Amino acid sequence: MSVYLYRWGKFAFRRKWIVITAWLAALLVIGGLGGSLAKPFQDSFTMPNLPSERATEILDQHFPGMSKEFDPNAVSGTYVIAAPQGQKLTDPANAAALQQFLTKLGDLSIVDKAAPPVNPIDLTKKIGEQAGIDCLNGDRSNPNFAAICSSAPLNVLNKDNPGSVATVKTKFTIAKFSDIKQADRDAAYQVGDEARAAGLQVEVTGSIAQDPGGSNGSSELIGIAVALVVMVIAFGAIVAAFVPILTALVGVGTAISIIMFGTHFLTVPTFTPILASMIGLALSIDYAMFIVSRYKHELAVSNSPEEAAGTAVGTAGSAVIFAGLTVIIALAGLSFVGVSFLTYMGIFGAVSAAMAVLVAVTLMPALMGAFGRFLFKPKLPLVAKHDPEDENSVTNGMRFARLIGKAPALTLGISVVLLGLLAAPAVNLQLGLPGGDSMPTHTTVRKAYDLQTAGFGEGANGTLLVAVDLSKTPADQRTEALDALRSKLAAYPGMDYLTFAQQSQDKQAAMFMGVPKSGPNNQETKDLVKNARNAESEFKDRYGMEYGITGTTAIYADVSQALLDKIIPYLAIVAGAAFILLLLVFRSILVPLTAALGFLLSMAATFGATVLIFQEGHFGLVEAHPLVSFLPIMLIGLVFGLAMDYQVFLVTRMREEYVHGKSAKHAMISGYHHGARVVTSAAIIMISVFSAFMLDDNVVAKSMGFAMAAGVFFDAFIVRMVLIPSLLALLGPWAWWIPKWLDRVLPDIDVEGTKLAELKQASAPVEDKQPATVG
Hints:
alpha+beta, Multidrug efflux transporter AcrB transmembrane fold, 4 domains, three-stranded antiparallel β-sheet, 60% helix, membrane, Mycobact_MmpL
């Protein structure tokens, strides 16, 4: 591979204007196709074989239309209305204001006229009348009062202030979430302005009120600004710092155009272009910087800039290709999880990573040729004084590597203990999906959640629906079976209220509505769902009755558990594929193995730190919330790819030095001397890009930004730059051991450039031939 890339690098350097023109033309063509065929991004959440699907099947068969109320992709809205402090909604003035609000709401063009909103006071009365009890003013000591009136949209069960809060569920005519316009959100909220002026508090939750957000470009701008500063320091020159930015813009632009083209045929999630631009920007800069750093070194030892460009692409370019392949595998592997939006985000993220590799090895040498002798000018004297590409320069990287070489056991022990301490809180990891409680406190969605919690209890934000299949239960036992099931479920400590059974018209099914005591993402609620499902076998054996549980709470628990169950298989697939790639790159058993084990340590530390701050709320930075359920999978996919990047960038140079005759210890020190600044610079850029997401108000964005930044920090600065070099120094030549039979079987991809050195030696004049060296 190194020979082919070497030849391409020389060609691109020499025919620079042809290559640059070809890239610009490709960008214009792909961008034109993407712009002309693009369709709106759409968020479609599907995950097959969830336990809650059993309830959906029963509802579809016996209660037509009921399951649509629990469709996560449907456009829904729930208004939460509260009376002024110390008053009730049934007070004449408040009741009139409420009715006026409902009339205006029903007149909205986006509201389904076939299902107009119902006055919650009237509906509460109706529920009580059908059961022969007065839910508004009845005797609360009646044993049936809670069971009957718990389904009322007015908070009549509230002991402190009954009748003060109500909910109004509203159906909208908008087909899907991606079709909601900002004008629709504004109209859905502003319809309550007159009621607010009359003294009522009117908040709205559901998909109609959720802003999908999007990138305002701040994180990308922060990343570019930090990248410029870092690369100026890394290269000691100003012009060279801008060249990786140019390749990044071309790579990201091409990737985004491909994604826009893909929207014409696929359901692409709205977050995809943000993720792709973040990955593409960071990787393009990292890869280009790696090649430019090697080019700078080769200029000092080659007889021409063209030769230096060819050698840089042949050696560093080979490492870039295999580093990029690990990222592509990790992202594409997200399709294994079986969640549609993760699949498409992973695939198009892999496309962005592929474009980063492509621009680095094809466009970068052309840009080297275009800038020529001006690339590393003007030099910054203070920064350029200690150049890692100068063999005679003593850098901080070399000093630190020598320190590791003197006491590798000590540095290894310190890094492992530190990561272990950071990982300790990860044993308490809890996952959930973002709900109203994860929204910023100033949003109407969060206010609606808090109002509903105050009026009905936190569990009202995620009620349970138990759908019962009675088709195999004898007709004379059905009432007994339903009563027994209801008694069993109501007895669980996590259940607050449970309605009486409502049978279907064909008498073949029934359903209960349950209100847990805790919120949708609380562990107590998940335990309640688990216990209720585990009881099914008892009723199946006794009555032939089957049932399923659905609703927001059950779906949250199912998705969280399903994603948690996928982590180990996903990690095994990705790590296995990366191990094979690293085996080809390093031709060693222990180096790929230690690379994977080191990643496990950095991930454990990342989860521990994230749990400590975001789940347990330590240091008071954010409110305590369960971590979003898809964070571990996304984090593993992204950080694993980046971790292997840093492994390849740092350790390939160590192997190159070892292959060319240095001892294992001195090869580690020399490779560290050349690679530390590049890895440090790349990691700082990535951390800056990810940390920018912490500026977002949304706690989910904050937690993801923190987790990714922490993951890169722990892996780059502790694992790759302390733990791995310590292991290489301790293992000595054994680090590079590989069975002879395996060495013969594996294809020789020659990342260290041995064949390239032989090619250059063979083509040199006879009088110049001598033992070949690279670097």
